């Protein structure tokens, strides 16, 4: 009897990339495939420390030493300098028959594709972001050629016209954060240009989205990638497929969760709470922290805020918070280090989400039917916030400002003044997301096709999705 397929899964070593790719690993194992999930040593340790989730017996972990760095900029440089030879050594050291395929993060494409080509292993790229964002990154070179980047900070509201299908949706301020780098030879900017180019050499593309949300852009991506699998929302797909022993919400978390906030939510009125989280990487100055806190308190709604120990920049952790603000926070708010976000968003007390617009957070909010206040900072977050507010109409965009009066107004708009209008589109898109993961839905069908193609090693010529009625 033939051995089952063996898939190597390689995420970029950050929380927002590890989580969806580990969810995919569990789905593939559930379908009978063997998976080796490749972490850095640092993330492997954090995953074991933070997650209580039992792992499928077909899932094993391998780690690459010496890549982790404590801040995101240094991490990019480390991946550029250290990753490829270490990954090659790991693949060679496995021995036995070569893996059936490699599923590599889209921003780990250079090393994965080159090692795959050397070893005769097909590579599928998984871009852990929206189709709109992936399409935008694929047009970085065209944006340069057409003179749309670089640009100065005084003209941020000029429309962008060089991205087919998204003409005049984006302003300069809505492009990925790397487009704000004035020097196009900057190594971080070039990292994304190079990784995006290498991604197009892959056999297929996986996207963490669903057909009805981004069908026009998925279709355009089909001109570059002959095979596309839109398989989001992944956490919902996992719950829909594994019903006898559902994975706990900390399954892909690199940070320990504080579940006490769920008890606090139980005591709040229905749809009254603003949930606040800026993800695992965004940092605030002390001034920004206080502006958000004043705005939330003045907004008049109870709030649950994830305040990581490193949320405020170290050099700004000096002055004490004004006593009257702390009293108001204790009366109305709940602060935790890290929250079980999927459960929080699904809780009946939560009515809005003040978010950094990371793609996992956006997808989780869409599924839960919770509208968003978007405050993007890095990477694809600017794209996501614009799509959420202007394309899908499921939130409001607070990009590039966070003064207390604006925060207060956005809270009141989302929770009161504009709520009825925003909730109509939010509820409809949430329904589409739920439908996509059910049997016969577009994401369910795309996952089945991905598994079938891995088992038969056939890639080429289709978008594995259909519309959900």
Walk me through the structure.
The strands form two sheets. The protein has an eight-stranded parallel β-sheet. The protein has a six-stranded parallel β-sheet with strand order 10-9-8-11-12-13, with helices on both faces. The longest helix has 22 residues, at 72-93. It has helices at 15-30, 41-50, 72-93, 109-119, 131-137, 140-145, 187-199, 211-221, 234-241, 260-266, 286-298, 323-332, 341-346, 359-368, 381-391, 404-417, 419-437, 442-456; strands spanning 6-10, 34-40, 59-64, 101-105, 123-127, 204-207, 227-230, 273-277, 303-306, 333-336, 350-355, 372-374, 395-397, 462-463. It contains 18 helices and 14 strands. The relative contact order is 0.13. Helix 1 runs parallel beside helix 9 (234-241), helix 3 (72-93) runs parallel beside helix 4 (109-119) and helix 11 (286-298) packs parallel to helix 16. The two termini are 41 Å apart. The protein has two domains: 6-250 and 438-463, Rossmann fold (3-Layer(aba) Sandwich); 260-433, Glycogen Phosphorylase B (Rossmann fold, 3-Layer(aba) Sandwich). It has 469 residues and is α/β, with parallel strands linked by helices. Its EC number is 2.4.1.-. Keywords: Flavonoid biosynthesis, Glycosyltransferase, Transferase. One of its GO terms (molecular function) is quercetin 7-O-glucosyltransferase activity. Belongs to the UDP-glycosyltransferase family. One of its GO terms (biological process) is flavonoid biosynthetic process.
């Amino acid at each position: 009897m033939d051995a089952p397929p063996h898939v190597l899964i390689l995420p970029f070593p950050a929380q927002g990339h590890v989580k969806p790719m580990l969810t995919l690993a569990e789905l593939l194992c559930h379908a009978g495939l063997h998976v080796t999930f490749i972490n850095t040593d640092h993330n492997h340790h954090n995953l074991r420390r933070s997650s209580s989730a039992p792992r499928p017996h077909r899932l094993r972990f391998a780690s690459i030493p010496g890549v982790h760095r404590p801040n995101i900029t240094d991490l990019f440089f480390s991946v550029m300098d250290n990753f490829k030879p270490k990954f090659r050594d790991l693949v060679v050291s496995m021995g036995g028959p070569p893996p059936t395929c490699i599923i590599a993060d889209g921003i780990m494409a250079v090393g994965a594709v080159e090692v795959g080509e050397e070893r005769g292993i097909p590579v599928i790229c998984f871009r852990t972001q929206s189709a709109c964002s992936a399409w935008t990154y694929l047009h970085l070179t065209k944006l340069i050629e057409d003179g749309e980047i670089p640009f100065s900070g005084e003209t941020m509201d000029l429309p962008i016209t060089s991205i087919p299908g998204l003409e005049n949706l984006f302003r300069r301020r809505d492009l990925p954060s790397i487009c704000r780098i004035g020097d196009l030879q900057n190594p971080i900017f070039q990292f994304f240009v190079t990784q995006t180019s290498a991604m197009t050499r892959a056999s297929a593309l996986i996207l963490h989205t669903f057909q009805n949300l981004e069908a026009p852009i998925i279709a355009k991506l089909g001109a570059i990638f002959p095979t596309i699998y839109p398989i989001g929302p992944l956490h919902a797909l996992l719950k829909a497929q594994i019903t006898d022993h559902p994975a706990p919400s900390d399954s892909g978390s690199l940070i320990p969760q504080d579940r006490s906030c769920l008890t606090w939510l139980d005591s709040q009125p229905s749809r009254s709470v603003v949930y606040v989280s800026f993800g695992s990487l965004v940092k605030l100055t002390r001034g920004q922290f206080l502006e958000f806190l004043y705005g939330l308190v003045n907004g008049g709604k109870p709030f649950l805020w994830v305040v990581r120990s490193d949320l405020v920049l170290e050099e700004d952790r000096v002055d004490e918070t004004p006593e009257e603000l702390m009293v108001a926070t204790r009366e109305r708010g709940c602060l935790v280090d890290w929250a079980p976000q999927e459960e929080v968003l699904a809780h009946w007390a939560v009515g809005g989400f003040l978010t950094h617009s990371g793609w996992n957070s956006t997808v989780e909010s869409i599924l839960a039917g919770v509208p968003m206040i978007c405050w993007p900072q890095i990477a694809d977050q600017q794209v996501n916030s614009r799509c959420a507010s202007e394309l899908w109409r499921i939130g409001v965009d607070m990009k590039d400002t966070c003064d207390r009066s604006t925060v207060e107004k956005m809270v009141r708009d989302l929770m009161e003044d504009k709520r009825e209008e925003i909730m109509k589109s939010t509820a409809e898109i949430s329904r589409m997301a739920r439908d996509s993961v059910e049997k016969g839905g577009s994401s369910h069908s795309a996952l089945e096709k991905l598994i079938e193609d891995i088992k038969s090693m056939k890639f080429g010529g289709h978008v594995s999705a259909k519309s959900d009625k």
